[in-house]
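Consider the following assembly input.
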Amino acid sequence: MRIPIETFRLANGLFVTLSEDHTAPIVAVNLWYHVGSANERAGRTGFAHLFEHMLFQGSADVGANEHFELIQRAGGTLNGSTWLDRTNYFETVPSNQLELVLWLEANRMGWLLPAMTQQKLDTQRDVVKNERRWSVDNQPYGTWWERLPALAFPEEHPFHHSLIGSMSDLDAASLEDIKHFFATYYTPDNAVLSIAGDFDRSEARDLITKYFGPIPAGSGRPPLPDMTLPATFGGWKRVVVEDDVMLPRLFLAFRAPLFGTKQYYASSIASAILGLRKGSRLYRRLVRERQVAAEAQAFTYDLTKGTDLLVIDVTARPSLAPEALEREVADEVDLLVRDGVAEEEVARAVALVQTEFVAAMQSAGDRAERLSLFATYFKNPELVNEQVQQYERVTAAEVNDFVRERLGEENRASLLFVPRQHAAEDQVPSDEIVAGVGSGAPA
Amino acid sequence: MSGHANGASAVLERLPRPVSGPSRPYQFPRFDRTALPNGLKLVVAPITKLPIVTIALLVDAGAVSDAPGRFGLAQLTAKLLLEGTAAGDGTAITDRFERLGASIEAHADWDVAVVTVTTLTDKLRASFDLLGEVMRAPAFTEREVERLKNERLAELLQLRAEPRGLADEMFSRFLYEEASRYAHPDGGDEASVRGLTRDAISSFYAKRYSPNGMTMIVVGDVETAEVETLAAEVLGDWKGHATTTGSTSDEAARRTRAVHIVSKSDAPQSELRIGHLGLPRRHPDYFPAVIMNAVLGGLFSSRINLNLREAHGYTYGASSYFDWRRQKGPWVVATAVASDVTHSAALEVINEIDRIRTAPITNDELTLATSYLDGVFPIRFETTSAIAAALTTLVVYDLPDDWYDEYRERVRSVTTGDVLVAAERHLRPEALQMVVVGNAAAVRDRIEAMAFGPVRVYDVDGRPA
């Protein structure tokens, strides 16, 4: 299946993608700004995300939290999210409310600053600190999503630091930072606007021109430093973390080909063979057969700069010691590297991808999200329609090439969570130990 | 062109907020009802948008039917359906589904067990065959029974370190009287799970899993006649007679307020739950109660969220909800706040509950909730699985077939007066239970000073500390 796609650009640089579908009176709007935590300056970790919160605090013609109220009153759903290299804002509304959404998004893209106050910033800073406590600090294993990038990317790399940010950096964020970040990154030429669902293309084009056309282009996005990294870690980096958890859990990461490259699809299939659903190798072997794991999965980050990461995530059964968990997982990976994958395993992964794509395309919001993704990263939303074929073309031989090149011991980084009492018994002296490059069991 | 950070807003032309035109009509998908001679009921909603189909097979075998001492039996039985049949073990079954690209899940909630399959249309026949096999010939091998029991025990262990899940679990435990099935985890507790046997599972299956107690919901790119044919071929010669639904006590443990602090000494935040018994799903006040809850804590722009999050910055989010079941599920306000403001946040929640019972909500508040629920209606049913879930609600709670056709009109007809009556009737400040999972030493004194009710402290297993 293919979805229809039309693309154009406004004079101010705003990149627009449209996809009509009149099966239900619903329309989804999805706006990506090409800025994320990678663009933060030193001492301001968490700022891109805090800024996302501020975009719901009103603009010249919209009161604090009124964006939420107007969309919900219109019968719509909405949210925003921040990632390493992009921030997005999205609404799905009854189709007669499209113009309201465009007005709201344009108002904050063009006229955010008149609404910014110190008090709003202080409140959202508290909200974000509580979000950090809720999603990271007070969750078992919750720090994994800042520890893993910290381990997988070198210290000066833009993907290294925490996305949600440290409490002290959040404290340091000022209204001046807001002004500067807004002027630098929240410009039409650094944004992609996608609309999917029940609308008329020419009407939508007129509305977009009307509301976004007057907003001036920015002066160009400052370039990120060179993000290129070697294809492998050059060894096995290990971190052991004591945490308030009951069961050991291992995150094992490998550097992998960038999202969008031909080799990416072999990596993605390898990831599915290892850990997508219950028919995957890790689940079958570790959860079902050997019964040493409670849960097992694998996924890719889908990064388009620096390096992608393929990550295995396995939680032990209560009886399994942390070192044994690492050994069990490594044995499975080694087996894959040694013997390769079977054609049927590739076929299973492709079949799951095919179904998943059709299932996702039912939703206007999912369509718009994927259009924005491919438009932002590759300036080519048509790639949405080529993804399934890219997977279908992958051969077992290509997966085996990837597996041999990237899943060996010279390309591993592991983050091993251990329950506090285990750590005490094992005499791990501090909160975190970097065992460095090399092989063997964790410290 | 230069940037627009400073002063440019005065120059750029801003346009006024647009007024929306009329909404396009929308109808909840049409569906047909039919049945096989063996009693299996069929509900089919043909939708031709994309080549995909979702099947939900409902079995009258929810966790309320667990006998005392056998908590977790319903859930374990449902899960074991996918862990092997007469023809192949769990690995083989999973592999056959996944090679079709199909997904299959099985679980039991309080009222019903549900097996859900989503598949592309061209694999529908093969998916039906497999579904028939797992429903009719589960092996319940000793090995898989033990494995899933151990997985549940691992889950229970994990829960002790997981504040959100622990708070939900503890709230139910302190809310319902001991004799209520709802007072105990739906998946069973450590003692009950250890005691579950293969024999108990087989006999539960034999009693509950029969075609006359099942409804098959099929939504997507398929015609009703074809579903009838497929269902008849795969399940038509299945005989048996299920016994009728179990029920449980849904009475509260206490009539007066109490605070239950579950101590996690190094917690950086308190997980807070405040609430009491809610309503059964078929209650005549359903619509006013839903609107009342939306204004109080159901929406982002609700009183409780705007108060706790936006006015005070106490939390990342605060919400309230009815946990709808056939019988009285909980009504609860849930949030997570820093330890030092736990008592202040609790006070604000209690004040908001009092306030919505003493004066009518404004017309603006009413229309925010009603126009949201009215407008969002088509957005709730974009996918075959969402429509199957909606039809599941219809079947499980025995709602009339025109429920979704009437829904929007019934939402729109709720008045501020109805909401006040619903708040007076169904919010009972005197019966509120408060659960805090957090640093007991840091929060206890100030919560006691609130004089909300007697305060007791427990460990993570719920034993008095």
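Chain B has two domains: 32-235, 258-398+411-458. Ask yourself how this observation constrains the way the partners meet.
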